[in-house]
Amino acid sequence: MGHTYTLQLHTGSFVHQMHTFDEIKEKAERIVKKIKISDIILGWNTDEKLNKQLVSYFHEKGIRVLLWLPVLSETEQVRDTDMITTVNGTQGERVNVIEHESFSFSCPATQQNIKHVIDIYEEYFSDIPFDGVFIDKIRFPSFANGYEEGFGCFCKTCQEKLTGIDLDELKLLIHNHDHSLLEGEYDEYGIYHFSHFNVDNFYKKRAHIITDYITALANYFSSHHLIVGADIYAPFLAYHVGQDTRKISEVVDFIKPMMYRYTEAPAGMRYEYNAYIKNFTDTSCFAEYWDHDPASDESIKKQLAFLSDLPAHVFPGIEINPIEGICSTDQSKLKQNLELFKDYPIISLCWDLMQMDETFLNIL
Known about the structure:
The protein is an alpha/beta fold. It has helices spanning 21-32, 48-60, 111-124, 156-161, 167-175, 197-223, 235-238, 245-249, 269-277, 284-287, 297-306, 331-340, and strands at residues 4-10, 37-43, 64-70, 132-136, 184-186, 192-194, 227-233, 254-258, 313-314, 317-319, 346-350.
């Protein structure tokens, strides 16, 4: 079909290595012979020997290698990070869906948490000749983490950045699951403008916090002559987790919107949609816009319009790893995705080379 692909490879968490070099090489050999790969995004296990072996191996194949680096989640395994504080004053909790991923989130507003990410990179990865860094989990938690966590962080630092917002009113709206927390409309860039002034201002401030966080990291990695990519939620929900896609695309080289149509886990489009709307009694304004299914063909086409004319390259992410109970992709669904995203010269194959169904190679 003429596509080039980026391919993700999950080597394990910061503290748990999932595969040996020989295991990865054996499967990768079969894949790189069949499809054209421009970039491998691998991480985030810290084993230096494994990472150097993998970078050398893929470089010999003429493939660029980017470090897959989660930044607002998972880092608590190796650093004493400041975790988010919910609207009720409690600490955020983890979501145990995918093995070796915690989905517990740290606060994006503190300089200390930015420093933690840089320190992790410098301690574990800076001596490895990566071509770039792909920053992941660059958001507030979604409603998949729970209703209170869905509104992000209310620690002292974050509240200081929420100037001009009536926090007492906002907290009352949240407590009452008020309709105004859902009602609004999208603009041409996928920014969701809430009808309620205070709610809309709150989401604008959240997006600024995330953009500032990403900008700080992107500037650091760019200064080290590294390509910078960013993992983005599907456009229908990106802004709701603090991601202003256009602003983010101004400071990175490419974005990978997670167009996960068949995943029942965080970032799965239907999974996230249902986790969001279940908290409100009247969901018509939001649900009807997407015809009650943000992952339908027509909804995907609407979202792709939000991604047009961005300053950065767009590499849509589609699932290639069937996982029982988590991801139900198959050959037919892959064909549908390739047709929907046929206008993109580069597509990201997600989210793990080692769990890829190799029968898909005959379709790609």
